[in-house]
Known about the structure:
The chain is an alpha/beta fold and 256 residues long. The protein is built from 9 helices and 9 strands. It is globular.
Amino acid sequence: MTKQDTFPGWDWDDPDGLATRLDEISAQVATCKTLEPADRLPHSHSDFRELGLTGIEFAAFRTAHPNGLGTDLTALRSPDATTEPGTLYRVDGDRWFTQLDVARPLPFADASVDWVYAEHLIEHVTLPVATGWLREARRVLRPGGVLRLTTPDLARYLVGYATGDGFLARHRRRLTTMGFGPPMPQRPAFLVNQIFRYYGHQWIYDLDELRHVLTLAGFEPGRIRHCGYRQGARVDVADLDTAFRTDETVYIEADR
């Protein structure tokens, strides 16, 4: 059986036609074994501390941080329950999760957490939504707290396209190995376009564009820094970076 047989009707040259299929794939991974609703969602710093929570990871059904609250727009499902916005859930007995929309104000008090982390989320929303969300993230951070963002690096794609340095081919092979659809076309123009047109992406950043949106959100330029993979102000937060995305990712932090 070929890859194409495994994904019948999949046409990489039709991004609008594949949008529904890609949404279905995302929903399929939003599952867990058990969901236990808690009495209430944490609001203040003391509420977070009572639960053993120090920060928030966005776009995470099950955060890898033992003291993190995972959040996502998509509902998380177990065989017996489905999450609803405004409720806190215990996931598989060892992680916390709440369903929320980053386009809306965060339901947490000012200065309630020590860190905020988001891996490959900001590119999924428009620039105005990103600015509003980052403004909210800054609001809920305690003084001295850190925000860490990772996102596909536009510069890496364009350098790869302009120089033919092999990046685009390596990126294509990685996605093929992951089984994310049949093999992509090898055309360089396609491999650049897919980062704009697939996966629900709305705005692609380079380092300067990240600095711009963080500044718009109220972070001081002198407190914004370019970081490396798993390198940052807090080891526990930087360690949330996942290895399989390092080829395409830019890492940045901003202090409150």
